[in-house]
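Need C-alpha cells for this chain, all 222 residues.
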Amino acid sequence: MMKTIQIILILGLINCNTQSSFIYKPSYQKASVTLPYSITINTFVDKRKSENTNNQLLVLIPFVPYGTATVNQFENDLQPFIIKPTRDIQEAIADEIDSRNLFKNISLSNKFEQKNSDFKIDGEILETTRIGKMTTYMLGPFGVYLWIFGAPIEYSFSQIRIKYRLIDKYNKIVLEKEFLRNRSRIIGYYYNMLSHHIDSNDLLNEFVTEISNEVENHFKKY
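Here are the C-alpha cells for all 222 residues:
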C-alpha cells in the first residue's frame, strides 16, 4: 500500500505547478517628484516562532478525519520556500522604492552597520505561517484512491504578519503599521499540487507594494 501511495504522489509531482522561491519584480511606478532625501532600509528582525509540527501521516489511520502540519517558518517547510527572509524582504523593498525614483539616495544597512540618512525603514517579521490539513476521508490509506478521482488532498492556509516603521533622522517614528494578510487554497492531485508557496510569494509581494505605497503617500502630505 505504501508503495502505491508513493507512486501516486510521484506521478502527481510530474504535472505540478510550483512556486518554490521568493520572486519580486519592481513596479517602476514612477513618483511624481524625487524627494531631496536619503533613506536607508534596515534588515528586518526575525521574531517568528521556530517550531514546526507535522501530524499529516495520521490520516493513514482509518477513521482519522485529517492530519495537520503547522509550519511557522516557510523556508523550513517539507517543500521549502527558498528565501532568506530578513535579507530578501529588505532588498525587495529597496528595489521597489528605488524603481519609483522617490528618493535621491537609497541604501541598505544591517544590525552591525548604521548609516546616516534622513529617513530609515525597519521592522519585524512576526509571522510566516502555513497550515496544511490533509485528509483521506477517514478511509485511512484507501482514501488515497479518492485523490485520483479529484477529491482534495489538502486544505492550505498561509498567513504573513510584518510590522514596519518609517523613522526620521531624529529617531522619531513618523509612520508605523502592521501588515496582516492571509490566503487559502485547496490542493488536489490534478490541481495546485505542491503550489503551497504561490500564496507565500504573492503575500510578500503585496507587503512590499503596501509599504512602498504607504511611504510614498506619507510624503505626498507635504
